[in-house]
Amino acid sequence: MAKPSDLVHGTLDLLILKTLLLEPKHGWAIAKRIQQVSREALQVQQGSLYPALHRLEQQGWIKATWRPADTGRMAKFYALTAAGRKQLDRELAAWTRLSAAINLVIEEA
Amino acid sequence: VRALDKLRLRLRTLLRRDQVERELAEELRFHVDQLIAENIAAGMTPDGARAAALRTVGGVAQYEEECRDMRRLSLLEDLWKDVRYAARVLRRAPAFTVVAVLTLALGIGATTAIFSVVNGVLLKPLPFAEPERLVGVWHQRANHGRATYFTYRDNQQVFQDIGAWDGTKLTITGRGEPERVEALAVSQATLPLLGVRPARGRLFSQEDDRPGAPMRVLLTHGYWQRRFGAAGDVVGRSLEVDGKPAEIIGVLPSTFRFLHTAPALLRPMQLARPPANSVNFGFQALARLRPGVTLAQANADLARMIALLPPGFAGYRLQPNVRPLIEDVSRGVEDVLWMLLGTVGIVLLIACANVANLFLVRADTRRQELAVRTALGAGRGRIARQLLAESLVLGLAGGAVGLLFARAGVALLQRMAPAALPRLEDIGIDPAVLLFALGTSLVTGVLFGLIPVLRLRSPGAAALREGVRTASDGRARQRTRSTLVVAEVALALVLLIVSGLMIRTVVAMRQVHPGFVRPAEVQTFRVDMPAGLVQTPPQMAVAHQQIAQRLRQVSGVVSVGLSSSITMDGEDNTNPALVEHLHAPYDQPPPFRRFKAVGPGYFESMGNPIVAGRAISWADIHATNPVVVVSAALAREHWQQPSRALGKRIGRPGSWHEIVGVVGDERDDGLDRPPTAIVYWPLVNDTYVKRSIAYAVRSPRVGSPGFLSELQQAVWSTNPKLPLAEVQTLAEIHARSMAQTSFVMVTLAIAAAVALLLGLVGLYGVISYIAAQRTREIGIRMALGALTGDVRRLFLRHGLALTATGIALGLAASLALTRIMSALLFGVGPMDPATYATVSAGLAAVALLATWLPARRASRVDPITALRG
User: Alpha-carbon dihedral of residues B601, B607, B608, B613, nearest 10 degrees?
Assistant: First the structure.
């Protein structure tokens, strides 16, 4: 199995927030979603995902509730808060600036 | 809102730890199970799927820890952990813990007890609506009379309303035994402006307060319960007050308190407007400031109105004195209470020093433990926090036990001090006091905890090996310990000197001649003859002569005397008394004198000698001879020698009375005040007639069973409607006059004793500890030929150096501090050399003992054992 590329440092928060923009999801679903959308290019490790989720919750950007998953089993669902939406905008803007800058450097070189 | 949400989450993490942990585990397990399910779906066997899943996720415990880290409210949580650890540590050292907690409890308990008094008497607002706007309306050196009251009421611009009041006594007859009760006379405005509402019936109306209106009274809750069994239909009933019927119009609520008074009932003052240019004083006034008006504005308004008074007031040079109403209660005790609080604060400091010392000793014995923790990665800050947590836990435990001490202390104070303290019913453990105790405990904990922490050095790896000490470190700690002991000795000396001065004050007061002798042999009581019972003053004189004769016939009675007031019974009046050819009326403030109306036998019964001339006789009284007797203080003031007063005339123009006798001084204003200048009028006269007369009966039988009721029967045999009031022996009055001073003395003495004890324990502890540490050294010295005496001297010298330094510092502090208390002293200066010398010598002596005991133990060390150990 090819080693999936490491996430660019600091982008995990952005990915989580973006993934939650559509609907609340539990941790497993978030990881799966990121994996699918990136066509398996991005693999989120459990060891990074859950600490990040707890940190975002402490920041007040996401909010957790326990409810049944599709299987009927209780799971912890995370949803974006209003503050989280604003944070997502900020992170998106920052990312756009950063990637544009990187592209400039790469094309120049 | 977001900040609140965050806080809620953090508190949840902190307080609902178990649930948060469970959720975390469950969340991770859900993830793993999903992974397993996916692997099975991909065609693996259940066991293989499980193994693969666990392989990919790695250490679950590690993730959990990382998640916890994300949630951590680290400081608070660590503190909680520290506190629990501290509690465990302290439980393992029960002797240390018990001693430390008790020492702190003593300090915190004493401080809290005195604070509860300060709180109840000085800090708690008066029990009226918006008390901060209530003021006492006074002049600098005078209260009010009708002229000032009506002038201010009619012309003032700063008060919502102004009310007059006066404490008084009323005779109640017609319901069982006649009785004389405390009462309060108020003008109509007084109760409404305080915000008082009646529990039943109504308050006084304008009509009730009109001069000459039929008498109506309000009952206080206590009297309503005591005399009327809390009857529901009491309003509208009639009561015989001072011999005349009075209608009960209402009952006050149980919460009603009025300054320092304890009235049974209230009556309207019924003040009439004064005749033009009459000058008199004699009652109090209070007012409610209009919103936004300051005390300075109120005083300015009063100054403006003083100019409006009749010209007769000009000579008095009145100055305005509008002040917070609470000062009417707290005056006289305020300084005393703050001083006592300062005193117990010193005791608390000594307790802190002692516990800090204990902590230092313990820190030494715990070097190994601390070294292990350091080796395991705890930083200096982490260990400091741990030590601080221990001292906080100790402080709080000390506070909890101290609160129990404080409760007992408050009960003791209340029993000890009824005569010395106002607002006794407001003194107790309330939320403010609890908060104070909590604050004190925390501050205390930090205070004594900080000292060992500041002395904390990272113990080197050497400390891990048992029994190794680094000498330099030990010496620094030794210095700290010695400093603490010096401070303890100094503080204890300050308290000892303060209480020594107070003891000398009490002794000096006991030696003052108060104007009577052998007070335990004199029974006093009051007989009141209101106008409703006995019509005219001459008839009253006849009735009193009859009573005096009957009393004389009671077996064992040596003498019977009558006076409108007994020495120091609190009857206080001051009236202008001019001397013929010496004072012209109204051109200057006339001299103010205490007046008493007396019958024969008063000076004889009290044991106050006639210095010159003669006493007043029944013949003088019945003939209304214009004569008076004056006290030696008054005679000396005008004529230097008492005998030269005889034949001079005193009184006022048109009513001069010849001085026929001079008697010894009475300390009517208290033992610690100069003798009062008194004019003694015959029982019936044209200037000062009182309808309530006190009897002084001297007999060796005073206090024996049955004697009092024989006296009562003798009075009632002349008229069964006469109540006996204020039944007390002269000794009781004497004791009450010393109540406040005795109270301060006893409290200070207790504080000083505790301080001394703690200081000595501290000294003893330090010398013992040094001796124990140097056992090996002593062994070597002795093996090399040092004698027992040499070793003993070594430690004695150390202890004495500490004591001497402490005493020197304590003396310097006392010289600076005792000046504050000079107002409390009598017959002794705040720098009395005898007290300073005696107390210092005494302290040095007991300190020597506290040093000698451990020094002797050290010198008995067996060199062989010491060197082997």
Answer: 50
- Between chain A and chain B, the number of residue pairs with CB atoms below 8 A apart is 60
Helix runs in B784-832, H state only: 788-817
Long-range contacts of B770-778 (CB under 8 A, 24+ apart): B770/B478, B770/B795, B770/B798, B771/B795, B771/B854, B771/B855, B771/B857, B771/B858, B773/B474, B774/B858, B775/B858, B775/B861, B775/B866, B775/B869, B776/B866, B776/B867, B776/B869, B778/B858, B778/B859, B778/B861, B778/B863, B778/B866
Cα-based distances in Å from B426 to B112, B422, B451, B564, B618: 15, 9, 38, 33, 48
Question: Helix crossing, B334-365 with B739-773: angle to 10°?
Answer: 10
Amino acid at B103: T
For chain A, the residues whose C-beta falls within 8 A of a C-beta of chain B are: 26-28, 31, 46-47, 50-52, 54-55, 57-60, 66, 69, 73-76, 83
Q: Within 10 Å of residue B513's Cβ, how many Cβ atoms?
A: 14
State the Cα–Cα distance between residues B749 and B492, nearest whole angstrom: 11
pLDDT tops 60 at residue A6: no
Instruction: List chain A residues with CB under 8 Å of B34.
Output: 28
What three-state secondary structure class fits B242? coil
- What is the helix (H) or strand (E) element at residue B181, kind and residue range? strand B179-186
Question: Which residues on B lie below 8 Å from A80 (Cβ)?
Answer: none
Does the ipTM surpass 0.85?
A: no
- d(Cα B124, Cα B120) in Å, to the nearest integer? 5
Q: Assess B864–A contact: CB distance below 8 Å, yes or no.
A: no
Instruction: Tell me the β-bridge partners of B71.
Output: none
Report which secondary-structure segment, H or E, holds B7: helix B2-15
- For residues B197 and B181, the answer to whether their CB atoms sit within 8 Å is no
Cα–Cα distance, B524 to B562 (Å, whole number): 9
Q: Is A21 exposed, middle or buried (0-12, 13-18, 19+ CB in 10 A)?
A: exposed
d(CA B117, CA B107): 16
Please count the other Cβ atoms lying within 10 Å of the Cβ belonging to residue B2. Answer: 12
**Residues of chain B contacting residue A31, judged by C-beta atoms under 8 Å apart:** 31
Distance (Å, whole) CA B148 – CA B306 = 8
Residue of B nearest to A44 (CA): B57
Q: How high is the pLDDT of residue A1? A: 35
- Give exposure, B669-706, as e/b (b: 16+ Cβ within 10 Å): ebbbeebbbbbbbbbbbebbebbbbbbbbbbebbeeee
Q: Say whether pTM exceeds 0.90.
A: no
Q: Both tokens of residue B705?
A: 């069973």
Continuous segment of H or E residues that includes residue B663: strand B655-663
Listed residue (B522, B552, B562) closest to B710, CA to CA? B552
What is residue B600's predicted lDDT score, i.e. its pLDDT?
A: 93
Gap from B21 CA to chain A (nearest CA, Å): 12
Cα–Cα distance for residue pair B322/B289, rounded to 1 Å = 10
Residue A103 CB contacts under 8 Å (≥ 6 apart), including other chains: none
* Tokens (6 digits) for A74: 């209780």
Q: What is the pLDDT of residue B468?
A: 47
Cβ-defined contact of B9 to A58 (cutoff 8 Å): yes
Decide if B71 touches A, using CB distance below 8 A. yes
Residues in chain B, overall count: 869
| Best CA proximity match to B843, nearest among B482, B508, B352, B491 | B491
Contact yes or no for A58/B71 (Cβ under 8 A): yes
Instruction: Classify strands B265-268 and B179-186 as parallel, antiparallel or unpaired.
Output: parallel
Burial label for A45, CB within 10 Å (0-12, 13-18, 19+), is middle
CB contact at 8 A, B228 and B196: no
Low-confidence ranges of chain B (pLDDT < 70): 1-3, 6, 10, 13-15, 56-77, 376-379, 417-420, 455-475, 584-589, 867-869
